[in-house]
Amino acid sequence: MTAVEGDGQNGTKTPEPSAKFNATTRTTTASDIDSPHEPWTTVLETPCTFPPEIFHIVMLNLIKNPNITSSHLFRADIFYDSGETLSPSTHQNKYDLLPHLKSEYRPLPAEIPGYERIRTIVRQLIPRNPLLDKPLLQTCHLLHRQTEADMVEENMVLYIPHTRTADAMPFYHPAVSKLAFLHHFNHDTNKGTLSLSYLLFSSPDPPILTPKLSRTALRLLQTMHKHGQGHFKGYEKRVQLDRIIPQKRYQDTYTLLKGKYGRLLSEQWVEVTDPGKHVFEDIGIAAFLVELWREMYLLPGDSGTPGSEPEDTVNGSNEQDDSSTPSAFPGFVDIGCGNGILVFILLSEGYSGFGFDARQRKTWSIFPPDIQTHLQQRLLVPEILLSQQMTKLNPSGESTPHARTWHNGLFKQGTFIVSNHADELTPWTPLLAYLNKSSFIAIPCCSHDLSGARFRAPLATKSIRAADIATGTSTKERLPQQQQQADPTTTTNNNYSSDQSKLHPTASPSSGSLATTPAQKKMPSAYSSLCSYTASLAEAVDFQPEQEVLRIPSTRNLCIVGRYRSRSRSGDECRDGRTSDGEDREARVVQVRDLVEAEVGRSIEVVGRGWVERADGLARKPGSGH
User: Fold this and answer.
1) Which residues sit opposite 560 in a β-bridge?
2) How many CB atoms lie within 10 A of CB 500?
3) Beta-sheet pairing, 353-357 with 178-186
4) Which of 224, 432, 581, 600 has its CA 20 to 30 A from that of 345?
5) Does the model's pTM come out above 0.85?
């Protein structure tokens, strides 16, 4: 329904500018682009209310992130950007690098009568599957003109692919010679239109559009309109990706690993679960770890043996004099490794390490024998939970009846700990890293407390919550970035919510209503709370946790990385597993024991007995696909 409002002068009511997407076909009308030597066809047009500055913001975002408009694309690599200092007379800026570019990367020229070129960008579209499609170079011109005493403004973004024939065009790009978005805005009425035009390779009269070209035009215009109106209403992106590892590095490594292992693992899949999810999820995690380790450590040398056990000359040594020099890769351990795919990929890429899980998986049988020797069926029972009266494991784990089925969580110093959907082991991950002087990554899934029992995790540990109360810090700041912003359905109209609560004061399950109350809507999700809680456990043992939303096919895609330590008692900063705080092992054990008892509210002996009982029960369950 179109809203109406008074003009405040003569009492008449005029329609409010429409923000709804309402595409109109324009192929039979005159084109919006009047170029004497180029027969442009305006395909679609829709009304809009966002101003020119938002058009520029959104278009630049779409230029830099073409994956928004096409799921077949990874990203765009920018090879040239004239910036906003382009001179209309010379079409160059003061610091122009154009003369130094190879000819194939130079922008293709374009002139539209009446428009002034204000910026030029050359990008390369990178497809998700390079085996099916090739990258495509494309010139993007930003054009501008104003008319009628500056009250009407027009802005155009012109795309020119660097190819001369429709047959040479990749599948992910419309088979047209040029493409243009035109934003027409009247500052007097605050009304605008957004249109999309094609310049076809052939020029029939009237123009003939294939069904694919028509569908593509509709999708592109709808996406541009959605982002423009959303930005105009104050929408802010809730998730910022690639905060730890740059997008290009991650995606290049992912593409490489996907080509090497994706089809191989999918064709040999022996579990009943979907290989499309598990295989490519673990490939994505492996790509992230490879790039993370590239920053933290020296890469495995040619002299190293892939799949060998971690060496003891690793991060965590107090003998490192130059903390700026990366140390040798310390090896990894995947606790709760599930199907073992992540371990297989990392070992195959030359990273030493091993993985273990409470239950063996069918997938382990498809791996080569040298990989299978690094996958173990073992239960992790942290040594700190083992009392003097219970079975005691030494670091080698070979002196007790349970040696082959239990692991005490003590690894060679500095071993990088991987915890991927490890459930009961998730909250223990930063604690194990602290005890082992290690770095870690935790990707939470299901919520368990430090005793192994299911529970709804709070936002932070008890001590940190108490400190937040004392300092007046909001616990909301600890939430993962997805939920740090207010929910517009619960905050944009407080008066309405208040009125509804007055009209329906008993709207609750006890009154027979299953409707979600406003208070429930404002509660963070159980998953967000778990991620926040895991990060707070890392803080409690002096880590500076980092959080990243991984580009993997899973809704449980947030990871907590612990590679930096806070300022220690001795005043030295620790990073990448290097420790110089002088704490001995016993002091660490005491700190972790106190933390566990405070969080669970029971003695460490009681927690240990309960953990062992649950571990025995877990071992009897059949393995799943993960």
Assistant:
1) 442, 547
2) 15
3) unpaired
4) 432
5) no
Sequence-distant (≥ 6) Cβ neighbours of residue 230 within 8 angstroms = none
Span 13-232 CATH architecture: 2-Layer Sandwich (3.30)
In contact, 122 and 107? CB cutoff 8 Å = yes
Q: Which backbone phi and psi does 353 adopt, to 5 degrees?
A: 160, -170
* CA 222/CA 220 separation, integer angstroms: 5
Sign for the CA dihedral angle at 159, 165, 169, 175 comes to: positive
Rounded Cα–Cα distance for residues 55 and 44 (Å): 17
Sheet strands (E) in 102-190: 116-127, 136-147, 152-161, 178-186
Cα(468)–Cα(475) distance, rounded to whole angstroms? 7
Contact status, residue 266 vs residue 571, Cβ threshold 8 Å: no
The burial of 349, by beta-carbon neighbours within 10 Å (0-12 exposed, 13-18 middle, 19 or more buried), is given as buried
Give the pLDDT confidence score for residue 549 in this predicted structure.
Answer: 95
- In the chain, the N- to C-terminal Cα span, in Å, equals 49
pLDDT < 50 positions in the chain: 1-15, 88-89, 302-322, 388-389, 391-401, 403, 485-514, 516, 520, 569-580
Nearest to 134 by CA among 143, 142, 124, 144: 124
CB crowding 271-284: b at 16 or more within 10 Å, else e: beeebeebbbbbbb
Instruction: Give the residues across from 340 on adjacent strands.
Output: none
- 592 closest CA partner among 583, 389, 407: 583
Q: Is 477 exposed, middle or buried (0-12, 13-18, 19+ CB in 10 A)?
A: exposed
d(CA 324, CA 344): 31
For the chain, which residues make up each domain, given as ranges? Answer: 13-232, 328-482+525-619
